[in-house]
Task: inverse folding
């Protein structure tokens, strides 16, 4: 785990090293292309009126911006209301602390089996592995999460975790992992097989664990949305419910929820609303027939407070985890989520992961972007993702000890491991470039020298290698643009 309590650093090859494998996997690319095309079309159908879309996302952005502006106060109000409702609230500064809290609750209750609803924060905590090491079995109940758990993989998408797999691959996996099931290409049969396994898990689980989409400070309400009913079963059928969430999920009023519910499902899956909207405000009360007898909420920081300190980068915390930015990203669509080697892939991951893990671990992520602005255009809460990518690129090469002179006074330099991607060779090259381009005589001498001998430089030369491994080697012409313009008399003309 990161020393400051951020997400566990993912060891192994970085994005640029992993991308060629994905690009050379035609089946993976077909899977993602088909899925992303469908999701983009469904989302577009949900927002046919540009004026309505603009108005709705203004409301959503305002709700999240107001909540962030009051975040410390709202978290205290949330804790107070939940406690009054009978929910036990726990604070975790690090993922290690969060895992210890969850494990302690389960051990105190004597729980040996857990059924889990979908939760990206639990993925951030690597909770399943932590519980397994202590003899507690955790089974994912979301169908996509269940599939990748069987496959021993991590999610490749924050809403549809197994989107990288097609029907045939899932059929082979089920036939191998589910006893007594023969291989079948029938989607209904595959779903029914998973349902049979999970139904028994729901009935016998000692505890349920879930994530949280929104936490309402005014009423002490945990809002969870889902389509399969597994979230509702995970939070109501077992006698113990533990919810885990990041501190940024709090909103101020219950009235803030409708505009967010109007945005999230439409942006995520192209649905007007999810099948289930669950609002949990406490454990089972006297006379009620269902629900857990105890409810706990674990509020995780894990670097979010550091992000919150910066006026510009704090916009990252507006995210409502809809994944619209991923669905429209030309980079993500071509390489998939596993290429990022991070819990949160795609555009939102490229700004969130470096801030939580640090630029030393994920400083390459902000560069895995074309800056085409598609992510910003579809973000339902108006996160300026391209602007933040550029900011993080600057932070990655700025020496940690140098004051942030490129930022207004209100901005704090709080990005972990600032300057981790700095290359002194690259710095010297840019210093040389600046020297040449600010001195006309030197510029003419260098360009003529390159025109004479530049083409003799081999493509695998040290300063050329990083460029030519993905691009053609530039060829220098014997005559400069100035030569051609002077020959045609353009440099002698006086502008009118």
Result:
């Amino acid at each position: 785990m990161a020393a400051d309590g951020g997400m566990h650093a993912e060891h192994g090859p970085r994005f640029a090293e992993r991308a060629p494998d994905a690009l050379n996997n035609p089946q993976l690319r077909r899977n993602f292309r088909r899925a992303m095309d469908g999701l983009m079309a469904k989302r577009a159908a949900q927002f046919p009126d540009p004026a309505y879309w603009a108005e709705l996302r203004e409301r959503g952005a305002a709700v999240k911006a107001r909540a962030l502006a009051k975040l410390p106060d709202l978290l205290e109000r949330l804790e107070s209301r939940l406690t009054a409702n009978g929910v036990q609230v726990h604070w975790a500064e690090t993922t290690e602390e969060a895992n210890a809290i969850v494990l302690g609750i389960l051990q105190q209750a004597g729980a040996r089996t857990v059924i889990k609803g979908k939760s990206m924060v639990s993925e951030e905590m690597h909770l399943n592995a932590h519980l397994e090491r202590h003899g507690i079995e955790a089974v994912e109940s979301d169908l996509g999460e269940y599939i990748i758990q069987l496959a021993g993989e991590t999610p490749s998408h924050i809403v549809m975790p197994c989107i990288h797999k097609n029907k045939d691959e899932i059929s082979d996996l089920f036939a191998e992992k589910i006893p007594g099931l023969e291989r079948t290409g029938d989607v209904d049969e595959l779903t029914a097989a998973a349902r049979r396994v999970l139904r028994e898990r729901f009935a016998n689980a000692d505890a349920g664990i879930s994530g949280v989409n929104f936490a309402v400070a005014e009423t002490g309400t945990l809002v969870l949305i889902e389509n399969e009913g597994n979230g509702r079963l995970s939070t109501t059928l077992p006698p113990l419910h533990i919810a885990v969430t990041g501190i940024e999920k709090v909103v101020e009023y219950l009235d803030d929820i409708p505009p967010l519910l109007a945005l999230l499902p439409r942006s995520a899956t192209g649905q007007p609303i999810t099948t289930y909207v669950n609002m949990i405000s406490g454990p089972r009360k006297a006379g009620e027939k269902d629900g857990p007898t105890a409810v706990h909420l674990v509020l995780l920081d894990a670097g979010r407070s550091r992000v919150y300190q910066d006026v510009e980068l704090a916009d990252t915390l507006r995210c409502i985890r809809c994944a619209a930015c991923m669905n429209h990203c030309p980079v993500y669509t071509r390489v998939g989520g596993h290429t990022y080697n991070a819990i949160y892939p795609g555009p939102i991951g490229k700004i969130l992961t470096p801030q939580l893990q640090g630029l030393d671990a994920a400083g390459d992520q902000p560069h895995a972007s074309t800056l085409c602005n598609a992510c910003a255009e579809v973000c339902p809460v108006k996160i300026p993702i391209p602007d933040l990518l550029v900011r993080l690129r600057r932070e990655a090469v700025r020496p940690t000890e140098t004051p942030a002179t490129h930022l207004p006074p209100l901005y704090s330099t709080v990005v972990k491991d600032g300057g981790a991607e700095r290359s002194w060779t690259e710095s010297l090259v840019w210093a040389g470039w600046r020297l040449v381009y600010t001195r006309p005589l030197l510029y003419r001498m260098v360009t003529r020298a390159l025109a004479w001998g530049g083409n003799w430089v081999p493509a695998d030369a040290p300063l050329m290698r990083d460029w030519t491994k993905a691009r053609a080697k530039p060829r220098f012409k014997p005559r400069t643009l100035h030569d051609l313009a002077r020959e045609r008399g353009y440099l002698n003309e006086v502008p009118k």
